[in-house]
Amino acid sequence: MKKHRANKAAIIGGGVIGGGWAARFLLNGWDVHVYDPDPDAERKVNEVLANARWALPMLYDRALPKEGRLVFAQTLEDAVLDANWVQESVPEKLELKREIIRLVQAHEAGIVIVSSSTSGFKPTDLQQGASNPEMIIVSHPFNPVYLLPLVEVVAGEATHPTVIEDACETLTAIGMFPLVVRREIDAHIADRFLEAVWREALWLIKDGIATTEEIDNAIRYGFGLRWAQMGLFETYRIAGGEGGMAHFIQQFGPALKWPWTKLMDVPELTDELVQQVGDQSDAQSGHLTIRELERLRDTNLIAMMRALKDRGSAAGKLIADHERAFQEPDASEVPFVTIRRTVPVDWTDYNGHMNESRYGQMFSDAADAVMVAVGADPDYIASGLSYFTVETSVKYVLETHAGEDVRVETRILLGEGKKLKLLHDMRRATDGELLATCDQFLLHVSLETRKTCEPRADVANRLRELTARHADARAEQERTIQ
Amino acid sequence: MKKHRANKAAIIGGGVIGGGWAARFLLNGWDVHVYDPDPDAERKVNEVLANARWALPMLYDRALPKEGRLVFAQTLEDAVLDANWVQESVPEKLELKREIIRLVQAHEAGIVIVSSSTSGFKPTDLQQGASNPEMIIVSHPFNPVYLLPLVEVVAGEATHPTVIEDACETLTAIGMFPLVVRREIDAHIADRFLEAVWREALWLIKDGIATTEEIDNAIRYGFGLRWAQMGLFETYRIAGGEGGMAHFIQQFGPALKWPWTKLMDVPELTDELVQQVGDQSDAQSGHLTIRELERLRDTNLIAMMRALKDRGSAAGKLIADHERAFQEPDASEVPFVTIRRTVPVDWTDYNGHMNESRYGQMFSDAADAVMVAVGADPDYIASGLSYFTVETSVKYVLETHAGEDVRVETRILLGEGKKLKLLHDMRRATDGELLATCDQFLLHVSLETRKTCEPRADVANRLRELTARHADARAEQERTIQ
Fold this sequence. Notes:
The structure is a homodimer.
Chain A: E1 8-12, H1 16-27, E2 31-35, H2 41-55, E3 70-72, H3 76-80, E4 85-88, H4 94-108, E5 113-116, H5 123-127, E6 136-141, E7 150-155, H6 161-173, E8 177-180, H7 190-206, H8 212-227, H9 231-239, H10 244-252, H11 271-285, H12 290-311, H13 314-323, E9 336-342, H14 356-373, H15 378-382, E10 385-396, E11 405-416, E12 419-428, E13 434-446, H16 457-481
Parallel strand pairs in A: 1-2, 1-4, 2-3, 4-5, 5-6, 7-8
Antiparallel strand pairs in A: 6-7, 9-11, 10-13, 11-12, 12-13
Helix pairs in contact in A: 1-2, 12-13
């Protein structure tokens, strides 16, 4: 293996899926080289990237790493040269995919993972005739690739065992959830469910039971909400009650053999049925362009995933875990930058700007960063001690909008005994313009008695040190100005 | 039809579904009479109600109506007497359901809607032999009934057409989304999808492709999140890109006939398979009790649905629409109560109490209520005028916790020209204890120039009047104290 080379992903095929992969890698700090002979590929990838650059940073409460370099390669060879990961996302034709993989491996000596985005083929099928089948896997993502964490990872018969391990490490590092499929099977796991639902849906439309919109409503107002956070089995475990899962199956199992199983056939895709589905979909969503639908979908996904993040649950837990790899506030900086982040879309209100309550969120998070810096971290809180805010005063200077990068600079004005006084300046990251200021007064408390008390000695000491450093910096600054 | 009687729902069958229905009606102000001869029914219903009383008020940003009266009826006749709605949720046995419906109709002269929660039977099957088949329908809800809005409404052959209309009106009034199924079919719509996925999932487990936990992850980290807000067809419309839905079908349609269609058979539910699913589910979720799983599910649902509410999208739009029926702030009250609400669980932080930013939210909402009261309502904002907050100062007096009912009393200190100064007292609803205070300074702005400007004359006048009334009330109060 070569050493010390920067992380580089080669993306072969620049459609919606390839573009999504490019965004995932790029926004997590990888260099990305895209190869696609289609003259429209650059435009298409840039469209996906524009969506991703808007959406992905909003998932997190810390700034993403510095974006990598994006190159549209002239040849497949250029794209693949020195890559650490090759992702193939060309159309679902087995021979085409095999040929691309053959060309890729002809250029890179079989040292890099070559992964296919195929939704249907088994990796063993892709390995046929390859020069280095041991490096070939499937990693099947879900649209929008830049937001949804799921990626199905599948080994073929010839895949080297450590390759799956390495692949999972890379995919986790770019914020995805690699689900290793135990045995390869056509369509992997999730798409089998999608196909099952799709077949049933086409029957319901064909038989005049429901329209596309009614089917969507049947999903999104009911089990769709359940499945966004627990999936099928954990939900049914609850339905089983104290009797548990086995009770549930015994109770509902027989329903599987009821008469509607006759509808498991595939409906014939006549021109008439295609037209019917198309017309119903137009009636349902035709008032919105695809771009508008994408924005609606992404906004909803961000809002729901951020809500789950606040609960530390489901997809939100993955985001919180991933975020820990991003740059932490560094208390040795002067000024102490306690927050570096993008303003997410769920923080704005009907006036089109960040709601005043979210300034409070920003400054509350900034106070948390100070607490962590002096050792009043989650462990300390778990031990029964914390700081409570007793008074805040905020001045709103300039409007702040969704998607803007901001930072908060924090100064400790007083850090003695139970008392902690902070002064926060919130600034636009691009030009340093002041957006708001906040005076904040906190008291140290016992979480048991809910009354004030002295901080632990080590926290008190670190707080005193940091306070002194901030006072020195201010004195230094004043001297410089005079 | 009898007139002037209070709304009363009779709930026949007090399991998880019956309890969920009881909660829906009760918390929306209906009297509820439950009949179930099972000696455990009262305990079971009360358990569901405890969950619902905790969860449902948290969905909304206004207080729910006053809870109705709950009665555990000794006889079916008592339960049904003078009811406006009868909901049958007994076990899925056709003969039992027919017998219950027969008994219900023997007691109420065929003037009330009798609706079945059946997940499988067609209403026409339930109408066989009934004295008043025209009043019989299916309304099939989804667990947890007190949170998920979907209810499938199905007419049988004999159902009177206006009955479906009346049923939809009632169901909408208790915050549900009635999906009228165009033609009756076994298992209606949503459960057909659930069965399709369930069949596929059992095969995947039986064949050792995936465990229950892996299947849940395949759902909740991928398409589950998509389906919680858009469903199947609108999501696929995006996947079809500019080519639209017909393009999507033509591209992906052939996949329906791929070899995995062989797996559409029903796997045999051997003891071994039941055991396997049960064991995997224990390994996945066995560390949590059913109560803990319910709380986790409900908390996640609340957080996601509230996130969608902030976006005015999907299930969140339904909640916002329903909320409009709840009591609005009344500016003629002294003191002016601008907020009456329950503190939702997504407003609390690691200290176990409401995060400081959510006090800001509360006071921001209180300011909105003042704006609406003086005519600076959404239409006014749409016309390009609004108030922006320029300074707030909050004093946190007592801790506030999830599930607590609170109110905000607001006084206008200054309402002249561009200036608006408000003083908010936030109090616990149960005992009036002061929780926090907020001084808030707002300026009237043009949304076009983003600069301050005078309010429209009618708004300025109403603001002056309300300010004067608040000043008078304060003077009066001070006189009384002296």
